[in-house]
Write a structure and sequence with these properties.
The protein is an alpha+beta fold. The chain contains 2 helices and 3 strands. Helix content is 32%, strand content 28%.
Length: 69
């Protein structure tokens, strides 16, 4: 398992949190995802054999949120 933390400056509320978490959870190989509007961080635990950081980043961006490393 690999864990990454991404910054999503646009996330500001619980609706944002749920939208981002649901977008990432839809990817293969995702074990855990936690979006925190307070810190604007998304922590993702995933299987690097099934999904990569670019796929995770794209899922968040496709949901309407920008991502910074």
């Amino acid at each position: 398992m690999t864990t990454i933390i991404l910054t999503t400056p646009d996330m500001s509320c619980n609706h944002c949190k749920m939208t981002i978490e649901n977008a990432v959870k839809g990817l293969p190989g995702i074990k855990k995802v936690n979006a925190d509007p307070g810190s604007k961080k998304v922590t993702v635990e995933y299987d690097e054999k099934s999904v990569n950081i670019e796929m995770i980043r794209s899922a968040i961006e496709d949901a309407g949120y920008s991502v910074k490393k």
